Amino acid sequence: MASQRDYYQVLEVAKGASQDEIKRAYRKAAMKFHPDKNPGDQDAEQRFKEAAEAYEILSDSDKRARYDQFGHDGLRGTAVHDYQHMQNEDIFSIFNDIFGDMGGGRRRGGGGGGGGVRPTRGYDLETQTVITLEDVAKGCEQTIDFTRQDHCDDCIGTGAEPGSKPKKCITCAGSGQVMQRGFGGMFQMVSTCPNCGGRGEVVDKICKFCDGTGHNPKKRTLIVKIPAGVHDGQAVRIANEGEPGTHGGPRGDLHVVVRVREHKFFQRDNNQLVMQMPVSFPQLALGADIEVPTLFGKSTLRIPAGTQHGELLRIKGLGLPSLRGGDQGDLIIQVLVEIPRKHNRKQEDLLRQYADLDDIAVLPRRKGFLEKLKDHFTGEDSESTSKKDQ
């Protein structure tokens, strides 16, 4: 293989990461290390190739399964394409989202680049929100505060001082890209214009409010609907709430990653909820109807007579809903016998009678302080009694 680094480490994701998480990680790496954004940086180019190779393997379920089981050895004989020749449709859709048409802004004919710079989609953003298990059960709305780079109010995104206009870049003739010889001069490649930074325009008098960038950080507040059944780590996509595109391109999206707070009673197993419930020995032995908490209020659990310690009982439909619809999960309750630390005299007598009936050996009754004191003065303590017996 071209690279022996662990593919999950390359994309900085966990081994059990979802396809959405892998795709987001690849987008992030592609934006950071793309050669057009790092001209002449060999390390960035190598990191970009590694990220593209890792994404090609981990985005393919068959290749990923072989890699998870056998590592790089499991991929021998499997073609891993160079990043410049990858034919995967998802890869190119990512490139188009991030970088536009990869040189398509230069129209054929017209002296090379007379067509100007093509619109480019803005960057996606990511933020987090924390919800409870009760929110997962019913769905909720969350207020999300985040900051994004937005069009400067003074220059309306041009980067030029109000009252002036940007001029067409003479280096790239307004295309934003230039042709350069690469890899020993054997062929030409398109790269970002070093004069205008790919904008196709240059500014003589820059906007003082945004320092010529055309953007300023702005705070934004949204109310986001979190669907019932969402899992920890999943993201809700809010279309067109990312950063603005260039040259009239559409905005990117906002991805709200949902984190679910641990619950003090319940543990989640897919759409099932699991909890432990302490009950008394008589309730297990004789059966009982007991009240149990749920995410939807209190409910009644019937314990059949003879239920054993640690046995699992189920209440249908009181688990979590499926994110994609369908049947509701169940509430699974593990019953644990609760042994009281103290008994009164009558309770102890009944327990000893029960032990006698089943011929169960138990420790003798422990005498209290007053009983021991009385025996001492009457000479009925255990020591004197043993001497009399002799």
Biggest β-sheet strands, sense, barrel: 4 strands, mixed
According to CATH, what is the topology of the largest domain? HSP40/DNAj peptide-binding domain
**Number of helical elements:** 10
Structural class comes to: alpha+beta
Please write the CATH class name of the largest domain. Mainly Beta
Task: Record keyword descriptors for this entry.
15 strands, 4-stranded mixed β-sheet, 390 residues, HSP40/DNAj peptide-binding domain, single chain
Describe the model:
The chain is of the alpha+beta class. The chain folds into four domains: 1-99, Helix Hairpins, CATH 1.10.287.110; 115-166 and 203-259, Sandwich (HSP40/DNAj peptide-binding domain), CATH 2.60.260; 267-337, Urease metallochaperone UreE, N-terminal domain (HSP40/DNAj peptide-binding domain); 345-389, no CATH class. The chain has helices at residues 7-11, 19-33, 42-58, 61-70, 89-99, 133-138, 281-286, 345-357, 369-378, 382-389; strands at residues 125-131, 140-151, 167-168, 177-182, 187-192, 201-202, 215-226, 235-238, 254-260, 267-269, 272-279, 288-294, 297-303, 312-315, 331-337. β10 and β11 (272-279) form a beta hairpin. α2 packs antiparallel against α3 (42-58). It is elongated. Mean pLDDT is 81; it is low at 79-114 and 382-390.
